[in-house]
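Give me structure tokens for this 195-residue protein.
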Amino acid sequence: MILIVDNHSENLGEITRILRKINVKYYSIDQSSPFTRVNVKKTKGVILSGGGPNLDKFINLRSIRANIACLVNMDVPILGICEGHEIIGDACGGIISKLKKPSKYKSLHINIIKKRGIFKGLPDSIHVYESHGRFVEDIPPELEVTAKSHKDRIEGFSHKNRPIFGVQFHPERSGEYGEKIIKNFIDLCSKYKKK
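Here you go.
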């Protein structure tokens, strides 16, 4: 069972469509939900969706408490998409910056730097869908960059010691390669043994 933390993404239906397509059961909770609504024993992985609150120095932790609770309390693979990616970066001590103008690309070219984890089996570069107003400008030592854009912006990272992954783009709207990323994540969830 996959838990989706709904950060009020307009693309939530695309995530659930892919999960249904590959016969994966899921349930979702709102970003502001208390952690008591999470079924820890049945949950094999967590997807932190895009959308939601602005991440800046005035971040409202109450509005994203389910995201933080999952990062702190769950020993399962976690995938952050767009806003979820930024939440992970922020929670780990990275720097989140606001774009002067929101970025929207139907086909952004990115380079895969580390072809493992969620990027296993993908080519060296792919085109993805991206739409966001903030980005992870810098990451702490416990995270490593796994993908970058042509502007040298961080498009993907993974945690060095935990199965935590983030992507700035939207794999749920990025065609076959995006579906492959989500499938790779689900495979990692099915193989992961809790400590």
